[in-house]
Amino acid sequence: MINKKMASELNTQLNKEFYSSYLYLGMSTWCANTGYNGSASWFMLQHEEERMHAFKIYNYMLNQGAKIELLTIEQPDINYTSLLECFKDSLKHEQMMTHSFNELCDLAIKQKDHASYGYLQWFVQEQIEEEASVGEIISKLKLVGDGNGIFMIDSQLSQRKPDTQVGA
Ligand code: FEO
Fold first, then answer.
1. pTM, 2 dp
2. What's the start-to-end Cα distance of the chain, in Å?
């Protein structure tokens, strides 16, 4: 059993993961509507991955007897003017999520909650990967500028495979 403060913060994080999933669904929609079908597919997989992250936290909370409240999921703003802007927004979001997990780890240390600290480490590692993969795409998009190279990158993004390592 974890204490109330940690349960409440994890519940907030649960909502952030569901928001992430919703945000990526929005990005996928924007890409599909704009003709970037490879990126739409990439973001759709990201949408599914974020839902799995949410359920990973949900299952941990259930196992720890923490109170789960399903909070309102905010409407994402998906009015992008370019694919680069869309991926930049994704990176900004992931940096915010990394900060959020770091704060949860700080809380776990403060409370000597070793179980939560250990559990959160999976997310800390995952955030490194998420920021790196989006950062790499942004670098490529910056390199090609507004040229036809965007469509090559978009086509490459359609090759992304589902992540089978998330687990419960
Ligand atoms: Fe689950 Fe991309 O943060």
1. 0.95
2. 18
Go through 82-92 and write b for each residue having 16 or more CB atoms within 10 A of its CB, e for each that does not. ebbebbbbbbe
Q: Which tokens is 28 given? A: 């996928």
Residue ranges of domains in the chain: 4-157
Distance CA(46)–CA(30), nearest Å, equals 14
Mark the ranges of the chain whose per-residue pLDDT is less than 50.
none
Specify the pLDDT at position 146.
Answer: 85
What residue ranges line ligand 1, CB within 6 angstroms?
A: 17, 20, 50, 53, 94, 97, 130
Q: How far is the CA of 79 from the centre of ligand 1 (A)?
A: 21
Q: In this structure, which CATH number among 1.10.760.10, 1.10.10.10, 1.20.1260.10, 1.10.3730.10 belongs to the domain 4-157?
A: 1.20.1260.10
Residue 166: the pLDDT is: 65
How confident is the model at residue 164, as a pLDDT? 72
Separation of 20 CA from ligand 1 center, angstroms? Answer: 6
Q: What residue's CA is closest to ligand 1, atom 2?
A: 94
Q: Is 53 annotated as a binding residue?
A: yes
Mean pLDDT, the chain, as a whole number? 96
